[in-house]
Specification:
Removes the phosphate from trehalose 6-phosphate to produce free trehalose. This protein is of the alpha/beta class. It has 2 domains: 157 residues, HAD superfamily/HAD-like (Rossmann fold); 70 residues, Alpha-Beta Plaits. Helix content is 32%, strand content 21%. A hairpin with a 4-residue loop joins strand 3 and strand 4. It binds the ligand O=P(O)(O)OC[C@H]1O[C@H](O[C@H]2O[C@H](CO)[C@@H](O)[C@H](O)[C@H]2O)[C@H](O)[C@@H](O)[C@@H]1O. The site of the ligand O=P(O)(O)OC[C@H]1O[C@H](O[C@H]2O[C@H](CO)[C@@H](O)[C@H](O)[C@H]2O)[C@H](O)[C@@H](O)[C@@H]1O has 24 residues, from strand 7 and strand 9.
Amino acid sequence: MNDAPHLEPGMALFLDFDGTLAELAARPEDVAVPSALIATLRRIQTDLDGALAVVSGRPVAEIDGFLAPLHLPAAGLHGLEHRETLGARVHRAEEGAEIRLLKQRTRDSGLLERGIYFEDKGPTLALHYRSHPDLEQELAAFVEEALQDLPGLHRVNGKMVIEAKPDASDKGVALRHFMGQMPFAGRTPVFIGDDVTDEDGIAAAQALGGFGIKVGEGDSCARYRLSGVAAVHAWLDRASLKVV
Ligand SMILES: O=P(O)(O)OC[C@H]1O[C@H](O[C@H]2O[C@H](CO)[C@@H](O)[C@H](O)[C@H]2O)[C@H](O)[C@@H](O)[C@@H]1O
C-alpha cells in the first residue's frame, strides 16, 4: 500500500469513528475527542461544501455527543441509522423481535455477571470482552448458538466485541446511500476506517472510483494506509489546509 494522497475539492469524505477519529478506550463511554479535531472537521466540512460524513457502528446520537457542537451527516449502527444532511432528523430502523430475544437470552446467560459488557444499541447489540479477553471463545460460542434460530440477525466481529445486527445494511450500503444525494453526488468518495466492518465502506468507495484508507495493521482491500489515529488526525489537518 502507498502513502495516502491528499484530499481534493471534488472528493466526499467518509470517516469511521472508533479507532479512526478516536483512540480505542477501555469502555465505549470512555472515548475522548480533542477539540482541535472538531475544529479541523468543521473546516473540512466547509471546504468540501458539506460532503463529509461519519459512518459508525455507534448510534448517531453518540457521535453527535463526541463531536459536539458539530452535527455532521452520519450513518450509525453500521448503516441502520441515517442523517443525510447537516442537522436533519435521524432515521432509525426499528428494534426487531429477534434482537429483543437475543438481548433476553444474553441477560439470562450469566455472561454479563462475569464481565461481558452489554451495549444495547436498539436494533443492534454489542457484547464487549475487552476487560475479559479470556471469555472471547465462550462469548463467540454463545452468540453463534443463539443466532442459529434467529435467521434475520448477522454476527459481526469487531475489536474485542461481537455484535449482532439485522442483515439490512452495512457501511458500503451507507456510503452508496450518501453518494446518491447532494452534497455527495458526483464527487469522488474516500472512506477511512480501521475495522473489519469498514471494509464494506472502503470497497464501496473504490468501486465508485474513489479510494479507501486502512487505519492500522491488518488485511484490507484499501489502496492506502495510515498507521493509527494520530496519523489520521495529521492527514485531516493537512487536508484542511490543502483543500481550496
Ligand atoms: O464503526 P466504529 O465507529 O468504529 O464503531 C465500532 C464499535 O466501536 C465501539 O467499540 C469499540 O470502541 C470502544 C471504545 O474505544 C472499545 O472499548 C471497544 O472495545 C471497541 O470494540 C462501540 O462501543 C461499538 O458500539 C461500535 O460498534
